[in-house]
UniProtKB/TrEMBL annotation:
PROSITE patterns: PROKAR_LIPOPROTEIN. Pfam families: Inhibitor_I78. This is Peptidase inhibitor I78 family protein. Gene3D superfamilies: Trypsin Inhibitor V, subunit A.
Length: 87
């Protein structure tokens, strides 16, 4: 019985993907999204973005954790995108 448990555990361990696959790209290129600056926030709807995107108002509080894979899209009170950064 103990061997069956170990065998099942080994089989499940083989199904776990690489950690890099789960995170996606480790870097972000803000220049690729510079065309969004000046556009309404709704322009993001048709854009293929990195897996992690943070859209926020320029006056909103935000965490200070640095995530190189995260795209930050900052907009003003009129919902116009004013800045695109990574981190």
């Amino acid at each position: 019985m103990r061997y069956l448990v170990l065998l099942a555990l080994a089989a499940v361990t083989g199904c776990i993907g690489d950690d890099e696959d789960a995170k996606g790209s480790a870097t972000c290129d803000p220049a690729a999204f510079a065309f969004l600056v000046g556009q309404p926030k709704s322009a993001l709807d048709g854009v293929l973005t990195p897996e992690t995107v943070r859209v926020m108002n320029m006056t909103s509080p935000a965490t200070m954790d640095h995530r190189p894979d995260r795209l930050n899209v900052i907009h003003d009170d009129d919902d116009t995108i004013i800045k695109v950064t990574c981190g």
